[in-house]
Amino acid sequence: MALRPPRLPPLPALRDFINIYQLKAKKQLSQNYLMDMNLSRKLVKSAGHLEGATVLEVGPGPGGITRAILERNCRRLDVVEIDDRFLPALELLAEASVGRMSVHNEDVMKFDVGKLWEEAGVPKSEWIESAPNLHIIGNLPFNISTPLIIRYLRAMADRTGPWSFGRVPLTLTFQKEVGERIVAPIAHPQRSRLSIMSQFVAEPKLLFIIPGNCFVPAPEVDVAVVKFLPRDEPLIRAPFELVEKVCRHLFHYRRKFSFKAALTLYPTDLAEELTHEMYRRCRISPQTLCTRLGMEEVRDMCYLYEEQCRRIPGLFLFDYRKPKSLDELAAATGALPRHYRFSMKQLPPDGVTLKQFDKEAI
């Protein structure tokens, strides 16, 4: 039976909340409040079907989006807010939610969502099943949006934390320019490392743009709402940190040929030989700009680089900015890249169950 939509008791208007609790945005925390409840409801509606869902909200601030989530009749809502000035306002919402909402005064960059859901007994779904009724939603401060999404994408790729529960969708806000980078296709001016990192793990969609003047204080830029749905199969079957390293180097010189950028993956005495090997075997022209590298080409480059790293111990740890000898690096921890955890072995004649498929690893 569907949950009956509960009515929140009368609460002060959001603007009154801010006045009552004397909440002022902190510039150093890049805080901007979304004051328009219609836009908050639009953002929450775009996240998907929340009735009966378990939801995590990151960076709730004074609670505008929090209210909109509670209105959607979720079963459980956890909010993570580092700024303790917001706690009285959020605790009032928690009281009004009649036990459905919990407030966590913690740093979202360190908060263990997987542990929270594990302790709460949240059911897990097989990865290849449809997305579970779990959601992560947030209007992020600009200063943590990119580091946080990289952290979340890594967890998606490794199926850890929230993504040990299945293909949990993620709906977040970013500066418009960052949102455009995340979804940028091949040859788009905004194509970047973040484009590849987002798109090989998930299917990101830029849902809509919120004008900056809808926030208090108004930022100098507009804001993009982006939804990420984890792919059932990544487009690059390689360890996340290896893909991240290759992409970081490829987009190092955005306006020059990608060959020049790829040279920085290798020690000077091996750079020409190994970069030529990469471009020759991947059938890529050395004159290709990084923004014109398709996902398939980046995939092939990652596979070839992984092969080279296994052939030449220490290469994976090489950093041209602070170079060390390969012999020294080969003796260090992590000298070889991890194996991709979810590659399937030869299937047995009688097949495998869904549970076996999801847990199969090298």
UniProtKB/TrEMBL annotation:
Its EC number is 2.1.1.-. The keyword Amino-acid biosynthesis does not apply. GO terms for molecular function: mitochondrial transcription factor activity; RNA binding; rRNA (adenine-N6,N6-)-dimethyltransferase activity. InterPro entries: KsgA/Erm, rRNA_Ade_diMease-like_C, rRNA_Ade_Mease_Trfase_CS, rRNA_Ade_methylase_Trfase_N, SAM-dependent_MTases_sf. Keywords: Methyltransferase, Mitochondrion, RNA-binding, rRNA processing, S-adenosyl-L-methionine, Transcription, Transcription regulation, Transferase, Transit peptide. The keyword Metal-binding does not apply. Signal peptide: none annotated. It is found in: Mitochondrion. GO terms for cellular component: mitochondrial matrix. It comes from the Eukaryota. Residues 39-232 form the Ribosomal RNA adenine methylase transferase N-terminal domain. S-adenosyl-L-methionine binds at residues 32, 34, 59, 81, 107, 139. One of its GO terms (biological process) is transcription initiation at mitochondrial promoter. Belongs to the class I-like SAM-binding methyltransferase superfamily. rRNA adenine N(6)-methyltransferase family. This is rRNA adenine N(6)-methyltransferase. It comes from Plectus sambesii.
